[in-house]
Amino acid sequence: MIFLRSSAVIFLVCAVAFVPATAAKSHPTRPATVSDANAYKGAIIMDAATGSVLFEDHADLVNPPASMTKLMTFLVIHDKLQSGTLTLATPVKITVADAKMGGTQVFLDPRETFSVEELIYAMMIQSANDAAHALARAGAGSVPAFVELMNAKAHELGMVHTTFRSPHGLPPPSRRIADGDLTTPRDFALLSRYVLQHTDVLKYTSVQTRAFGPNRAKGPQRMINHNKLLGKVAGVDGLKTGFTEGAGYCISVTALRNNRRVVVVIMGSFGPHGEVDKGHARDLKAIEMLDRGFASLAPGGPAFTMQPGPAPEPSPITAAPTSPADGSPAIKFALPPPKK
């Protein structure tokens, strides 16, 4: 696969598909690509090797993380795998509550049973809310008990402005932002760095497309990763996107170049006039910030290295193909055009 230079991607996409209605803010150290006022409410760039902050702008602003929440769900499940409470092959019987989650899903049915690992793929690639709900039940016996573990882990990692109330990031029944999951770009960068160092999260978040449920009666569902930068921007291999009307478009994205790794977190992104733009402005800003992050790394600094614990037991689907079962090609990279 041929990677495009990130700067070339920015120029091409901006020239063809996105022309901001207002000029970018004037700032001596910021490339004038997408106005920060429109691109996010808060953002941060972090060196994954050292934890050093390379850039921040309203990094402690509290905002809903939407489906980025599933990254903490993954971490708690990983802890259960490490302790032996679960294995990747543990069967999870689907319940009516799982099937009724709504939003983005893999349409789980109460008559079905899937392995923990297959549900992890569904949660991290398809961002399936039903899979996240099922994993939470399997991990702690109930969703409320699992959410307690999520918050305990957040406290352990020093995520001082974070409160989780769900394993999936959907808005609360009240639709009040204060009643849902809340975090900050800084807190989420801490989480992202930790999972990169201590887990095999990239095994899941780097997959662009995969078939879910190959033995289902109606055939497998083709899952396509919501991270549109995968495979098209040099080094990008994770982590998680999210969107709700209250949260805006969010992304925690990482890339590895020349053994150096950068994490970018963007929260609360909308289009040039505050409109829903399918993550267009967010993705452009993420590309720009990845380039900025790598340019800001001190020469000769430490390479990124993982510090994992014991590897989880393998499951039967670990070596399954990551392309669709019918052999059709993966979707090509194309940022959506702005709404007219």
List the helices and strands and how they pair.
Layout lengths: L5 H12 L18 H4 L2 E6 L5 E5 L12 H14 L7 E3 L2 H4 L13 E3 H10 L3 H12 L2 H14 L28 H14 L3 H4 L3 E4 L8 E4 L11 E9 L3 E10 L2 E10 L10 H17 L44
Antiparallel strand pairs: 1-2, 1-9, 3-4, 5-6, 7-8, 8-9
If you had to describe this structure to a student in words, what would you say it looks like?
A hairpin with a 3-residue loop joins strand 7 and strand 8. Strands 2-1-9-8-7 form a 5-stranded antiparallel beta sheet, sandwiched between helices. Strands 3-4 form a two-stranded antiparallel sheet. It has a two-stranded antiparallel sheet with strand order 5-6. The protein has one domain: 3-Layer(aba) Sandwich (Beta-lactamase), CATH 3.40.710. It is of the alpha+beta class and 340 residues long. Helix content is 31%, strand content 16%. The protein is globular. It has 10 helices and 9 strands. Mean pLDDT is 85; it is low at 1-33 and 315-340.
Short summary of the structure?
With 340 residues, this protein is of the alpha+beta class. It contains ten helices and nine strands.
Main attributes of the structure:
340 residues, alpha+beta, Beta-lactamase, 10 helices, 9 strands, 31% helix, globular, disordered N terminus
CATH topology: Beta-lactamase
Oligomeric state, counting identical vs distinct chains? single chain
CATH level-4 homologous superfamily: DD-peptidase/beta-lactamase superfamily
Overall average residue pLDDT: 85
Low-confidence stretches at least 5 residues in length (pLDDT < 50)?
Answer: 1-33, 315-340
CATH class (first level) name: Alpha Beta
Strand order of the largest sheet: 2-1-9-8-7
The number of strands is 9
Q: What is the tally of helical segments?
A: 10
Could you tell me the radius of gyration in angstroms? 19 Å
Structure class: alpha+beta
Major β-sheet annotation: 5 strands, antiparallel
Give the percentage of residues in beta strands: 15-25%
Roughly what percent helix? 25-40%
Q: Outline, from the CA principal axes?
A: globular
Q: Report the CATH architecture.
A: 3-Layer(aba) Sandwich
